[in-house]
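Morning - S-adenosylmethionine inputs below, output right after.
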Amino acid sequence: MVHVPVLLEETVARLVTEPGGWYVDGTAGAGGHASALLAAAGLDARLLALDRDGEALALAKDALAPFGDRAILERANFLEMAEVAGRHGLRDIRGVLLDLGVSSMQLDRPERGFSFLRDSPLDMRMDDRQALTAAGLLKRLSQAELADLLRRYGEEPMSRRIAKTVAEALARGELIETTAQLAELVSRAKGGRRGRTHPATQTFQALRIAVNGELAALAAVLPLALGLLAPGGRLAVISFHSLEDRMVKQFMAAHEGRMEALAKGGSRWIGQLPRARRVTRKAVSATEAEIVRNPRARTAKLRVLERMA
Ligand SMILES: C[S@@+](CC[C@H](N)C(=O)[O-])C[C@H]1O[C@@H](n2cnc3c(N)ncnc32)[C@H](O)[C@@H]1O
């Protein structure tokens, strides 16, 4: 299934405040948000679209073809955005978008190994030029490290029991190299299925985050993206779980400081630099109608920050 962009109108309306200007989409995916941004910003606008997944970038290329040379595409990690933007002579960037996490294409293609719904090699790499896969990571971690990872990145309450079951299976020489082998092992550790979500949901989320270094990348890209914006430019971030949203919220709050009056006269800025203003005080969530159309939107949260002069 081609990826359906979440919170599309909500994002475009907050990122594009005047016609023209340069935009950067750090997570191009299938190009849904990128095309809507270019369409809204008009003929004088240009956009740099990045994705570290070669398959995603090929789809984005098709979606952005109607915009001709107004769209520049590069396969790159969004952490390289300043360098790529510099190479293309981009200045005064009006907006940066980060739509985090995985795309429907990545989840639905069994050979990518992101989903326990189909059996495939336990891969989970967004960028197939990277050496480390989820199967490789499982072999590399100690039992204690795996338990810690499942608790931190998956918020998995039975992390220790799962880590023990995995360690024992590996010690017995059992293979954990496919999504089905891992899903079965986690189900066994948790005593089977209870409720609506699959018992391996949190384990798969945690491994995916770790394999792709998602939280470290987010922590590093936020200051980088804000630093790239022209005054008045905006950074929009769409996140899909509380770990990411917490980081985005704290980052945005820290840059929205305040002026404090000094006893000797004048005032000083209390807060991180560059100065910014939160466009969204509360995160924007999807409407019920969007969630019915696109269940992936259920956990999406949009936050927008505007760089000040
Ligand atoms: C939710 S999808 C984006 C969908 C897109 N907004 C659309 O409308 O189709 C997230 C995309 O971000 C990419 N991605 C995640 N982390 C990345 C990173 N550090 N650098 C570049 N791309 C990344 C993934 O490969 C994936 O294609």
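Note: The radius of gyration is 21 Å.

O.
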